[in-house]
Design goal:
- By secondary structure, the chain is an alpha/beta fold.
- It has nine helices and eight strands.
- It has an eight-stranded parallel beta sheet with strand order 1-2-3-4-5-6-7-8.
- Helix 6 packs parallel to helix 7.
- It is globular.
């Protein structure tokens, strides 16, 4: 088994006490690479340092909607400057997106998302998208900027929304949401999509699996997400594992022989 966690926040303080132990355990269990997106200016340098001189961790830079409260347009200029300075060290822009649960006005979220999408288009980088109850709005902005490579991480939505993203070349991140019995709509959408449209993720330390609520999630749970995905699919486990890895390498232009 050679798995890639396409979305995990290994730089978060939740991993400060045992980060290397978690990574060592992951390697022993066939999890060979980790994509770590940032959430805002406060952790750009942290994720860059985490990915420095490593082959198993690759990183992305972006501004997450949930971290917008105290930010203004200057942060977008700072993002562009940081991307320019570290373009050889990042594989995507993100995490960025929209979220209806938070107090930040949707107009401000859309402004920041649009600017980041335009920067990704200019730099020819894929995008890592956060979308909570905003799939239609996110899809419209993607179409407006003509973004054709990336992932809606932790996808929860309908089959129609999933198909619309994939028609644009945007893959769907499959995480712990599919381990919950209540997630029937999302499960049906994931089951109906071509396997080529999917990526595997944990979103650790967030998005705990069913039965693990209140506990820290971590990349060691990736095989459990895979198991839940396999239960929804008709393909063999080996075919699913191989295709998910290929999908991730293609989305983020990873060297397929890079991780060891």
């Amino acid at each position: 088994m050679m798995l890639i966690d396409s979305h995990c926040h290994l730089d978060f303080p939740a991993f400060d006490a045992d980060r290397e132990e978690v990574l060592a355990s992951c390697r022993l269990n066939g999890i060979e690479q980790f994509i770590v997106p940032s959430v805002g200016p406060e952790n750009w340098q942290r994720v860059l340092k985490l990915g420095e001189d490593r082959r198993d961790i690759v990183v992305a830079l972006g501004i997450h909607p949930c971290f917008l409260s105290n930010l203004d347009e200057v942060s977008l200029s700072d993002l562009e400057q940081t991307v320019n300075a570290h373009q050889d060290n990042i594989i995507a822009l993100g995490e960025m997106g929209l979220d209806r649960r938070i107090d930040v006005p949707l107009e401000k979220q859309q402004f920041f998302l649009m600017h980041q999408l335009k920067l990704a288009k200019e730099k020819q980088l894929p995008v890592i998208l956060h979308s909570v109850r905003t799939n239609d709005e996110v899809a419209a902005l993607l179409k407006n900027v003509d973004i054709d490579r990336g992932v809606v991480h932790g996808f929860t939505g309908s089959g129609q929304q999933a198909a619309r993203f994939w028609e644009m070349g945007i893959r769907l991140g499959v995480g712990g949401a599919i381990t919950y019995s209540r997630a029937q709509k999302t499960k049906a959408a994931i089951a109906a999509m071509p396997l080529e449209a999917l990526l595997l993720e944990t979103d650790s330390p967030d998005m705990p699996l069913a039965g693990h609520q209140g506990q820290r999630n971590d990349p060691q749970n990736l095989p459990l997400v895979l198991e839940a995905l396999c239960a929804l699919r008709s393909e063999s486990t080996s075919v699913i594992e191989r295709q998910l890895r290929l999908n991730t390498c293609e989305t983020f232009n990873l060297d397929r022989g890079q991780a060891r």
